[in-house]
């Protein structure tokens, strides 16, 4: 079947070849046509539109005669580019579309990319149809990416930045300019240096950075002169004139505007336009003439076919030989393809193994962090608990610097463990925002009160300024918001002395039920150097740390950045050395009075039980047994302690308890299995998991085992007793 298709293709090719070859009065070599298309492009670069159009016309005629789709595409593209330069934009679009038509007949993605890029230029800069123009640019980038033509991507990105800047959309255009600046050394050259510097000048001018803007514009003018790029040079003078005008430097603005007019007049003088217009009309007339000639050529070719039978026979013999060579080539290619497929299959297997190893490493990392946090929290629970017991039982030690240092160190180590675990949860996409009703003023003032000790340490004041237009109750994750504010304010207090930290909270805008709140944390501390401002949001980075002071782990701002990512928000900062720093971010919270009332109505109310509470603690660590028992008995509850799950089952068989505090990680039998056995005994006593594991890791298994709630060690005793009271009241 395959051989039949090849023969049919050969016969069709032969017929097509015979019907056209005799109509051709002259064949042209690829080298000759390429030389013409190159000449036309060079004349275009020199703004010699008349010569460029004349040469393009000749190249187009010979390309059509030779049936060279690639050369035809290039010729039409050059003709269209000439019309674009002559401000004949409708004609330019017409010829660019003809170029696209022939480009689609080739496999040349480079041509596709450049034509789409050129159409993007016209629609953006001349037709002012920016959406359509940007669409052409994006298609150009897709074709360039197919062939990994980073150089063409570089040029298209430059055009996209220019298009956005042209309409004042600097923020949309900046990512493309950033790409251009990043790869400028690799793909930039003298011909586009002027445009790149001009775009940087426009962006810095928009940002109000006069020094960088001026330097960029001057570099653009210099590059335009050196490369003799008259068009880019004229635009550089024009944009620099606008910048100078905004500065109030009217004299220099006028001089640059005058220079722009001079260069433009030089490029587009009346004589050149008239001559080029005549040449362009000739190209259009050739299009119509070519359609008529096509029918005449076909008619003449049919007559010649009859008289050239011998030639046809010879050609058939030649094509037969070619077919044999083609079959041999296909055979060789088939063997090569099989070999290549085998190599690709091996490579794919290796990539799959590498992917599985990476996933396994990620799981091991999460397990490692979880295990380490558990192993650290367990002894820390004992250290923090015993420290509190010593302070309660020996009031004379309240001022002991050694005991204070011990308590502070334990708290810091616990904070570090929590920070690392939290970063790991965010990176593993295991953190989900909650929707709770809250009063923003209450939350901020709670943060302020929590940090009052740190403020006094450096003789600072915390000032809160809240926009009265913000509703009393909003819906969102107040815990994560408080954590963000806490980290930013504590960071500001550390690097400020004898000053103030101001928390500005303003209603920026309202969209439906979403209230966009802007938070601004401002201090007058030591400030952050410009070169360090990007680094401070990285993990474990500490800028300006001294050996004699204590400034934390370098995780706070990294957590802030990642938490804001959960809110679909970003953080920005402004800072000057010796004057202070401002952190700013925007979060949308829901305002829904009806939903707020439902949430408030569903809040559990603590009801103190009427009788003495009997608590069973199941814990294998003796230090933790002591700490937990002391904490419970301090609240006038009765407490019994057992070492393992089996002992718990025995004591529950003969004694009633109001609540059970269950450790999870125990020898012999763990807390989950112990709970399951308790429930099989028919005992409905509430069980609280008192564990050093992260809550998110064990919640699902805890619920399936029959555990009612979870509290993480080290815990806040107030929270523990609140949970006990609620569970006993429900029971």
Structure overview:
InterPro entries: CheY-like_superfamily, HATPase_C_sf, HATPase_dom, His_kinase_dom, HisK_dim/P_dom, HisK_dim/P_sf, Sig_transdc_His_kin-like_C, Sig_transdc_resp-reg_receiver. TPR repeats lie at residues 73-106. The modification 4-aspartylphosphate is found at residue 663. It is an enzyme of class 2 (transferase). Residues 1-23 form the signal peptide. This protein is of the alpha/beta class and 731 residues long. The strands form 3 sheets. A 5-stranded mixed beta sheet has the order 2-4-5-7-6. Helix 13 (230-247) packs antiparallel against helix 14 and helix 20 runs antiparallel to helix 21. It contains 27 helices and 12 strands. 67% of the residues lie in helices and 10% in strands. The N and C termini lie far apart (81 Å). It is elongated. It has 6 domains: 1-22 and 308-330; 28-106 and 270-300, Serine Threonine Protein Phosphatase 5, Tetratricopeptide repeat (Alpha Horseshoe), CATH 1.25.40; 189-268, no CATH class; 383-427; 436-601, Histidine kinase-like ATPase, C-terminal domain (Heat Shock Protein 90), CATH 3.30.565; 614-730, Rossmann fold (3-Layer(aba) Sandwich). The chain has helices spanning 2-21, 30-45, 49-65, 69-85, 89-103, 109-126, 130-146, 150-166, 170-182, 184-187, 190-207, 210-227, 230-247, 250-267, 270-307, 309-393, 401-427, 440-450, 452-457, 478-494, 556-566, 593-601, 622-634, 645-654, 671-680, 695-705, 717-730; strands at residues 436-438, 461-466, 474-476, 500-511, 514-523, 571-576, 580-590, 614-618, 638-642, 659-662, 687-691, 709-712. Helix 23 links the parallel strand 8 (614-618) and strand 9.
